[in-house]
Amino acid sequence: DENQDEIFRHVGLKAVNDCLDGFNCSIFAYGMTGTGKTYTIFGTKDYPGLVSRCCKAFFDYAMQRLSNDTFFEIR
Q1: Domain Kinesin motor spans what residues (predicted)?
Q2: Which residues of the chain have pLDDT under 50?
């Protein structure tokens, strides 16, 4: 079993980087009831899932590149 960090590194980070390169991206969880889809996507306070980790990666990227002539818009 992969933990939340490993899943983000293998799946989420690629989606974030592709989005930052201008591609439209989505992550889809599919499987039987009770197999951990919601946990993987949303996680918990102690073990954040893909949504929290991807959002953090976007904001980290934006904060690293902020300057007076930089504009970021999130829709």
Answers
A1: 1-75
A2: 1
